[in-house]
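User: Sequence recovery, please. Input:
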């Protein structure tokens, strides 16, 4: 199913730059930066966003958001980094959005997770590597999990929140509890609460994670677009100032 049949022009705009529209919208209270570039606090999320890559001034704004020599991660940029920036990684990803085929429902075994659960949340992320998760990431939205014998063995929650949409993220299931449908059950539960407040669900996945993408498509998501995720180390502060003086 094509996503174009049910997305408005407004939807397309925020989905093309979800981190920016999160940090200038529902997550504005977390935002650090200015009208060119914004970021979450380091202990909340590593995401950094720019208003547009067409403005060369964004590089100076980005360099001001992290210490000299610090690493940033950006999405949607596939060009070369300016002089002084050190590329540290690049990968391809996909963005998925819900379709009318998605049938969200609450899960009777799911439990709400909060600040008291952060050590276990960080541990399950470390074991399963679903993507970046920091000590305060849980503040971005609702997180839930499934426990077996008291141990947290599966988790999912909400991350980016551009107006009208909420990203389902941190879907992690311990290896010993996979192939039981736990991840799908939690995705449907999170999607249920997203729909209940009038939003729609989106997801992101590495393009190489074909198993997860196929599972999300079976639930009722569709790939909307491919995107590039890049990482680079910022130049030394002296270099930033020298460039600005030229």
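Assistant: Recovered sequence (246 residues):
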């Amino acid at each position: 199913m094509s996503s174009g049949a049910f997305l408005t022009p407004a939807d397309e705009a925020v989905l093309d730059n979800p981190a920016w529209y999160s940090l200038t919208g529902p997550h504005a209270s977390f935002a650090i930066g200015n009208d060119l570039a914004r970021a979450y606090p380091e202990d909340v999320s590593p995401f950094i966003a720019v208003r547009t890559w067409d403005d060369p001034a964004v590089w100076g704004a980005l360099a001001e958001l992290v210490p000299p020599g610090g690493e940033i991660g950006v999405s949607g940029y596939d060009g070369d980094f300016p002089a002084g920036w050190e590329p540290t990684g690049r990968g391809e990803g996909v963005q998925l959005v819900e379709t009318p085929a998605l049938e969200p429902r609450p899960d009777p075994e799911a439990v709400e997770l909060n600040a008291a659960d952060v050590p276990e949340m960080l541990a399950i992320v470390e074991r399963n590597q679903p993507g970046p998760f920091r000590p305060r990431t849980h503040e971005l939205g609702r997180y839930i999990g499934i426990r077996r014998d008291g141990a947290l063995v599966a988790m999912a929650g909400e991350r980016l929140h551009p107006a009208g949409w909420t990203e389902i993220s941190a879907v992690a299931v311990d290896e010993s509890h996979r192939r039981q449908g736990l991840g799908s059950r939690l995705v449907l539960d999170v999607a249920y609460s997203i729909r209940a407040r009038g939003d729609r669900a989106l997801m992101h996945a590495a393009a190489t994670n074909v198993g997860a993408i196929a599972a999300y498509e079976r639930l009722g998501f569709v790939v909307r677009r491919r995107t590039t995720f890049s990482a680079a180390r910022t130049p030394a502060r002296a270099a930033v100032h020298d460039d600005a003086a030229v």
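The longest helix spans residues 182-196.
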